Amino acid sequence: MAPANVRASRLILLFVPRASLLTLLASILWAQSSGDYLYPIRDGRKFGFINRAGKVVAPPQYDAVGEYREGRIAVLTNGLWGYIDLSGKMTIEPQYEQANEFHYGRAIVRNGSRYALIERSGKLVAEIPFRVLGSFHQGLLRVQDAGRVDESGKRVPTRYGFIDRDGRVVIPPTYINAAEFPDNPENLPFGAFDREWRYFDHTGKVIVSVPFGEHLNPANLFADGRLLVKDGFTWGYKDARGNWAIPAKFNDASSFERGLARVQDGEKWMFIDVNGREVPQEQLRLRPLEPFSEGLALTMENGLTGWVDQAGKLAFPLRKYEKAFKFSSGMARIRVDDLFGYLDRSGKLAIPAQYWAAADFDHDLAFVQTKDAIAYIDAKGAVVWQAPSRR
Questions:
Q1: pTM reported for the whole predicted model
Q2: Range(s) of the domain holding residue 73
Q3: CA 22: distance to chain centroid?
Q4: In this predicted model, what pLDDT tens digit does every residue of 21-70 receive, in sequence order?
Q5: Which of 100, 103, 104, 102 minimizes the C-alpha distance to 4?
Q6: Which of 51, 66, 70, 299 is most buried as measured by Cβ atoms within 10 A of its Cβ?
Q7: Three-state DSSP class for 21?
Q8: Taking the CA atoms of the chain, what radius of gyration do you get in angstroms?
């Protein structure tokens, strides 16, 4: 779990050198609410926020800021973290050495080596007697019971388990290693125990067990609700209930990726879907290269790039771009001639390529940088807010 101050240190700078922009853009603050939204600004070494209209809601006054989620933003003042709301009001006074974003109405905070869960009001929910790893997924939080010496003087190895949003231990720390719960409930996490990879549900019940093997083989991951499992000499796929979704009949196989898996049936290699049906070659021509966003996904053919819908149909003709990105807020960021611009869903260059750097649109605004300034623009390319000139 990256501390909020680590994420915030990468937020926007005024007139940033071009070489630093990849780091800068990675930390633009994205909203997670259907309500209002705040965008970070910076003046010198201090951070503040504007709203969608470009109005300053919180003047630059914070040493660092975290991510907006569930109506709260973590802010750093004089070495301690607190939280503000969307009006800029401090709702939880600065008092933590580390403070993370809210999930399921809870935030993880830390002072020294002691972790705790708090509500959006700042009320303490529970102390956590473990080290916290990651964030909440499917309502559960992964924790680590670090190696310690028990009452008999014997060293107890590090173990991993899970707690719920009220701090209750749901899955005791028993696993030598454990992955976080996937966001997709059709997929299961796994943990290492007694030379097995054990895949378990949110109650801790083990659904599938797979031996390590003599060479301590790494765990296969659930993907698209399917887990690649070997049964004797052949491979198949189990679902999150432990049933064979696709019988073990393949001589060789790969894990699923974006709805497809490559398998060897007899001597024939082919692609199958999550139901085990062969996918014709013509349907593989414009295969999605990443998860769908707003109903479209990037695809490539012969060095050209485009976007396809769930049926595999192109949204508009393939073209040559230096870089292309997912659709967000109805716009897709592209780079041509070393400058960034934006396409709309019809493929029209709605905002010409004119920016040295740019972020994806989100909640109607996008962060951009020209040779002389940084700004937020709307979907028409109009400047909503621009950093004051320092020349």
A1: 0.81
A2: 1-105
A3: 17
A4: 333 343 343 333 334 789 999 888 999 999 999 999 999 999 999 988 99
A5: 100
A6: 66
A7: helix
A8: 24
